[in-house]
Specification:
The chain has about 375 residues and is of the alpha+beta class. About 15% of the residues lie in helices and about 35% in strands. It has three domains: about 120 residues, Roll (Mannose-Binding Protein A, Chain A), CATH 3.10.100.10; about 80 residues, no CATH class; about 130 residues, Mannose-Binding Protein A, subunit A (Mannose-Binding Protein A, Chain A, Roll), CATH 3.10.100.10. A hairpin with a 5-residue loop joins strand 8 and strand 9.
C-alpha cells in the first residue's frame, strides 16, 4: 500500500536562530498509510515505522486537518483512548513511554462530536438479545419493582431511563434467570459498564445472567478524527480505519559514546529521503537547541534513552558556549562561564532539570542527532 506524507511542517515551538547562521528547527511530518487496521494495530504500525499516532500535543491540528481533507480522508485513527482505569476519562496516548495514556482528562473537551464519548450501557433489542451501545442512545425502558419487570415507552437515554424508573418508584431492571422471560420488546436494562471492562447492575444488584448477542459487548474505547467536522469520535477499537502517524527530524541513538564520538557518529549518518528521491539524502548533526520552551518535547523524545542524560551539540570553545550549528548560546548564565577541567560538553537530562548540564567530554552516554535534507551533490562536499 502507498504511504502519503505531508512535506515537513515546522511545529509552533520553532527554534529562533541568528541571521546568516544555519536555521535549526524541530520539524514534524504526517504519514497516512492507505491501509485499514484496528486501533491497536494502528498504534503498533506507527511506532514501528514512525514515532506514534498523532496527538494534538505533537502536531499542528489545523495543518493536519487541511492535509487530510486535501487527500480526501473521511476518518482516521488518532492517539486518543479511554483511560482503562477510569471509564469516563479520555486521554492522549503516552508518547513518552510508548505505552498507555497520560495527561489531562479530555472527556469534556469541545473537540468531541455530540454524545460521542458517552459511556456503555446494555439494551435489549427486538431479537431479545443484549447489545452494548452508547448510553446517550435512545430506547424504551425496562423497570423493576419488587419481583415485577415492567416495560415503558420512553425513547430516552439510559440515564433518563434511570430517572424515569425512579419516578415510578422502581429502578432500571436487573435481569436474572427467573425474570428473563419478561423481556418481550426492546428497551434499556440496568446493566452498564464501569471502569475498565467490568459490567455491573444498577444499585449493585447481583446477577450473573447475561444474554449478549454474538460479538458483544462492544466498547467504544478508541478515538478517531473527522477532518471535515474537525471533531473526535469514539469507536470500537476493533473497527478498521487508516491511522495518521507522525515523525520528526530527531534521532535518539541508544549507544554510549564520548561527546566527540557522538558528534562523528551523527555526521557519518546518511539515510535516503522519505520520498525516495534520487537527488537528495538525509544528513545528520548533533542536536542544536536555543530555547527552554523546546525542553518538554525533546525531553519526551529522549525518555527511552538508556542514560539519564544525552549528549547534545553544545560545546565550550574559545571562552564561550556554542551550538554545533555555529549559534551562540543565548543564556550563558545557565552554564559555568569557566567550566571545570574537561567539563566542556553539554547534555540534556530526560528528567526535570530545566537547564543544560556541563559534563566531562570523555564520559560515555546516549546522544541525539538532528536530520536535514541535503542535495546529493552538496552533501558530498560537506
Amino acid at each position: 500500500m502507498g504511504n502519503k506524507s505531508i512535506p515537513e511542517l515546522t511545529l509552533p515551538f520553532l527554534l529562533t536562530t541568528a541571521l546568516c547562521l544555519e536555521a535549526t528547527h524541530i520539524k514534524n511530518t504526517f504519514h497516512f498509510p492507505s491501509e485499514k487496521m484496528t486501533w491497536t494495530e494502528a498504534r503498533q504500525y506507527c511506532q514501528r515505522t514512525h514515532i506514534d499516532l498523532v496527538t494534538w500535543n505533537t502536531v499542528d491540528r489545523v495543518k493536519l486537518s487541511k492535509w487530510l481533507v486535501k487527500i480526501d480522508v473521511k476518518e482516521a485513527w488518532i492517539g486518543l483512548h479511554r483511560d482503562p482505569e477510569k471509564d469516563p476519562v479520555w486521554k492522549w496516548i503516552n508518547v513518552k513511554t510508548g505505552e498507555g495514556v497520560a495527561g489531562h482528562d479530555l472527556s469534556q473537551s469541545s473537540e468531541w462530536a455530540d454524545g460521542s464519548q458517552s459511556g456503555h450501557c446494555a439494551v435489549v433489542r427486538d431479537d431479545l438479545m443484549w447489545y452494548s451501545v452508547k448510553c446517550s442512545s435512545r430506547y424504551n425502558v425496562y423497570c423493576s419493582r419488587g419481583s415485577k419487570t415492567l416495560h415503558h415507552e420512553g425513547n430516552v437515554s439510559w440515564h433518563h431511563a434511570s430517572q424515569l424508573c425512579q419516578a415510578f418508584m422502581s429502578s432500571l431492571a436487573t435481569i436474572t434467570k427467573a425474570n428473563k422471560d419478561d423481556l418481550d420488546n426492546s428497551g434499556w436494562i440496568g446493566l452498564y459498564r464501569q471502569a475498565g471492562h467490568n459490567w455491573s447492575w444498577v444499585g449493585n444488584s447481583s446477577s450473573n445472567y447475561r444474554n449478549w448477542a454474538p460479538g458483544e459487548p462492544l466498547t467504544t474505547d478508541c478515538g478517531s478524527y473527522d477532518p471535515k467536522t474537525e471533531k473526535w469520535y469514539s469507536k470500537v477499537c476493533s473497527q478498521e480505519l487508516e491511522p495518521v502517524c507522525y515523525d520528526d527530524n530527531l534521532v535518539v541513538v541508544n549507544k554510549n559514546k564520548t561527546w566527540e564520538q557522538a558528534r562523528r557518529h551523527c555526521t557519518a549518518m546518511r539515510t535516503p529521503c522519505a520520498d525516495s528521491s534520487d537527488s537528495c539524502v538525509y544528513s545528520y548533526k548533533m542536536l542544536s537547541l536555543h530555547n527552554l520552551q523546546d525542553y518538554d518535547y525533546v525531553r519526551e523524545r529522549i525518555y527511552r534513552a538508556s542514560t539519564d542524560e544525552v549528549w547534545i551539540g553544545l560545546r565550550y570553545l574559545a571562552g564561550e558556549w556554542r551550538w554545533m550549528n555555529g549559534n551562540k548560546l543565548d543564556d550563558q548564565g545557565m552554564l559555568p562561564e569557566c567550566p571545570s577541567l574537561w567539563k566542556n560538553c553539554g547534555t540534556l537530562s530526560k528528567h526535570d532539570t530545566n537547564n543544560w548540564i556541563s559534563r566531562d567530554c570523555s564520559e560515555r552516554r546516549n546522544f541525539i542527532c538532528q536530520r536535514r535534507k541535503m542535495p546529493i551533490g552538496k552533501e558530498k562536499r560537506n
